[in-house]
Amino acid sequence: xxxxxxxxxxxxxxxxxxxxxxxxxxxxxxxxxxxxxxxxxxxxxxxxxxxxxxxxxxxxxxxxxxxxxxxxxxxxxxxxxxxxxxxxxxxxxxxxxxxxxxxxxxxxxxxxxxxxxxxxxxxxxxxxxxxxxxxxxxxxxxxxxxxxxxxxxxxxxxxxxxxxxxxxxxxxxxxxxxxxxxxxxxxxxxxxxxxxxxxxxxxxxxxxxxxxxxxxxxxxxxxxxxxxxxxxxxxxxxxxxxxxxxxxxxx
Length: 251
Known about the structure:
Blueprint: E1 3-5, E2 12-14, E3 19-22, H1 29-35, H2 44-58, E4 62-65, H3 78-91, E5 96-100, E6 117-119, E7 124-126, E8 129-131, E9 147-150, E10 155-160, E11 166-176, H4 179-186, E12 195-198, E13 209-210, E14 234-237, E15 242-245
Parallel strand pairs: 3-4, 4-5, 5-6, 8-9, 9-12, 10-13
Antiparallel strand pairs: 1-2, 2-3, 7-8, 10-11, 11-12, 11-14, 14-15
Helix pairs in contact: 2-3
């Protein structure tokens, strides 16, 4: 299979393109938490160790960041600037890097090395794969893809028992866009298979939105015209366990 969820990691590897894709790193989040009294050391070194291991084990040749590389919005802090420079200085020696901008990525472009490719919120098409963050509608060109990847939603599933204990686990959502609705929206004659995978957040400090507890219609993202029925999504834990179809799960 060309698309592989990396076991127990919020990362996907696309074998035929040798792409390792992640979303929602939000470097700088810990500084905001510090201002609220929560002391957490800078996470960049931890991210780099994890990415080094993933690049090595998958043999990826390209790292694709599907939006929200940085945290503060609007603008950018000096701390984020320093950590982003260190982040890219380390990784550009190992892989080619592509960044699709998310809604948190204001002020990012000026900090990127020339070797890093950056695309706006409309995303980027690579072969039969399309990547966009999910805070805005993807570019029309991506609708010719068979497989789409987005972040932004940071999906999780909440589990509970009869005595009130609750836990939220990160999940992958796999669904398919409605071709007829997509053709109508974009005014196009044909599409690819347009199967959509929604990535969990790479930065686990961000938490997860318990999609099995969301009311219908509360989905954050594009395709609000009926192009996507999130309830029909297949839900997978990070270890690959299939836990069901979202609409059939206990609310």
